[in-house]
Write a structure and sequence with these properties.
4 strands, 3 helices, 4-stranded antiparallel β-sheet
């Protein structure tokens, strides 16, 4: 049976974008899934399980990203990672960072 693929477009809403703490949160969550996780920003494709790739992405507030996962739990991975990004990584006004 071929691996399934899931994709979703999300927008970074947290004020500081992808900096060290959100990158670590993303990588930690992505690593819980067997699927390969990629982030597409323009023509750039990075490994969503690589902290170095995430830190060099240069994604600021308002950046649109495409999350793509390939594997048997791809949809679950994209759903969870999208929710993390759309929640603002706990950095939105009135939220307490985890």
């Amino acid at each position: 049976m071929p691996d399934s693929t899931a994709e979703r477009t999300v927008k970074l809403v947290n004020p500081q974008g992808f900096h060290a703490r959100p990158a670590h949160m993303f990588m930690k969550l992505a690593s819980q899934y067997r699927a390969n996780v990629e982030i597409l920003k323009g023509n750039e494709v990075i490994n969503g399980k690589s902290i170095l790739d995430l830190l060099t992405l240069g994604a600021v507030n308002g950046t649109t990203l495409c999350l793509r996962a390939i594997g048997d739990d791809a949809q679950a991975a994209v759903d969870a990672l999208s929710e993390l990004i759309e929640s603002g990584f706990g950095e939105m006004p009135g939220q307490t960072p985890s």
